[in-house]
Design a protein that fits this description.
The chain is mainly alpha-helical. The chain has a single domain, classed as Up-down Bundle (Hypothetical Protein Ta1238, Chain: A). Helices cover 58% and strands 5% of the residues. The strands form two sheets. A two-stranded antiparallel ribbon has the order 1-2. Helix 1 runs antiparallel to helix 5 and helix 4 runs parallel beside helix 6. The longest helix is centred in the C-terminal third of the chain and has 24 residues. The radius of gyration is 18 Å and the shape is elongated.
Length: 186
């Protein structure tokens, strides 16, 4: 199988079980943003401590599943839809449990946090911002086409998870949170 097909040279792409769309279409933008988020998590995993690295790999797999659902239009055949991997109904609950476990080790939040500290935390903060952008693209798609509510909630929770993971990474590295302190110099 060749990596190039030339099918997209004119600015269109094919959906799974559906029609061809312009690459600028909302559905293509949504799964493209999710793909970028997945790549960003892969980059984060390079600097992560082992248990966080494993969790980032798990979330990459979930993002691939989400992307496959977003790349499949509502009008796709039942046989095409049957080929999709199932969405884990407990994805948000699992993220929440991990957020709570990290939070129990961290100082309570009293200020906004600036990105940075350790290399791992800086990467995770960037991933959080990419996640919010992906969420906005999927919300935009959901305003015109059906999107699973569990998948929307997942992206929202994943950004919270990435924020908390960044704080936990700094804690493990012996760095404190970088606090935003507004004032005359801000």
């Amino acid at each position: 199988m060749k990596i190039y097909t030339r099918g997209g040279d004119g600015g269109e792409t094919g959906l799974f079980g559906g029609p061809r769309l312009l690459k600028s279409a909302g559905r293509v933008s949504a799964y493209g943003e999710v793909d970028e988020l997945c790549a960003t998590l892969g980059w984060c995993a390079l600097e992560a401590y082992p248990d966080l690295g494993a969790a980032l790999e798990r979330e990459c797999a979930r993002l691939f599943t989400l992307g496959s659902h977003l790349a499949t239009p509502g009008e796709a055949s039942a046989s095409a839809r049957a080929q999709l991997p199932s969405w884990p109904a407990d994805a948000c609950a699992e993220l929440e449990q991990e957020i709570d476990a990290w939070d129990a080790q961290l100082e309570p939040l009293r200020n906004f946090i600036l990105p940075g500290g350790s290399e791992a935390a800086a990467r995770l903060h960037l991933a959080r911002a990419v996640c919010r952008r992906a969420e906005r693209a999927v919300v935009a798609l959901a305003s015109t086409e059906p999107v699973d509510a569990l998948q929307l909630a997942y992206l929202n929770r994943l950004s919270d998870w990435l924020f908390t993971a960044a704080r936990a990474a700094n804690h493990r590295a012996g760095c404190g949170d970088r606090l935003w302190l507004p004032g005359p110099s801000a």
